[in-house]
Write a sequence for this structure.
């Protein structure tokens, strides 16, 4: 599941780059069509050919404006915008956050997951003393590394000074469980 999610994320990122380039080429071609530039200049010729690859199918579908205005640039920009929005997915999926409830034991020899408590909380041993927030920093670093996330994606939101903590993670709860299950298999 983790590999499939990364593959889909990478595919969406590449698609987003392609759509941004597509929009850029179409806008540059539209601007060049308004300027008195030699149409046979090598740069103008390349831009025109690239935009024609994109705009010709749209020209066949969208009729010319009654004033003779070619609307394919605006239509192709709309297509690129809607395709980019589809590639990014729904806004809720992009901003998914979940809470992770933990029972932390500071001062261990090394940071590690230590199973689950009777209340269902995951237990974590942290290799840092509970002095001046060092255990919280080590906890955030350990959890982020276990989930394959940057440290800025994990925050302690409750229990800064206690052993029972609630972390906010920039990931959907099902994805957190999948990644922690994979981490459990690797360590056990």
């Amino acid at each position: 599941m983790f590999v499939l999610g990364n593959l889909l994320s990478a595919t969406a990122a590449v698609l987003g780059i392609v759509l941004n380039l597509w929009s850029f080429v179409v806008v540059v071609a539209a601007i060049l069509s308004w300027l008195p530039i030699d149409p046979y200049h090598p740069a103008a010729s390349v831009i025109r050919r690239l935009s024609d690859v994109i705009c010709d199918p749209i020209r066949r579908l969208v009729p010319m404006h009654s004033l003779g205005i070619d609307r394919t640039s605006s239509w192709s920009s709309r297509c690129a915008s809607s395709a980019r929005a589809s590639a990014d997915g729904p806004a809720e999926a992009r901003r998914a956050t979940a809470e992770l409830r933990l029972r932390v034991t500071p001062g261990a020899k090394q940071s590690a997951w230590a199973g689950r408590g009777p209340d269902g909380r995951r237990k974590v041993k942290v290799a840092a003393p509970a002095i001046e927030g060092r255990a919280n920093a080590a906890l955030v670093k350990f959890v982020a590394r276990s989930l394959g996330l940057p440290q800025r994606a994990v925050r302690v939101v409750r229990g800064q000074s206690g052993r029972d903590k609630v972390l906010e993670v920039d990931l959907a709860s099902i994805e957190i469980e999948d990644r922690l299950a994979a981490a459990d298999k690797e360590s056990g």
Observations:
- The radius of gyration is 26 Å.
- The beta strands are 98-106, 112-116, 122-126, 154-158, 164-169.
- The chain has a mean pLDDT of 79.
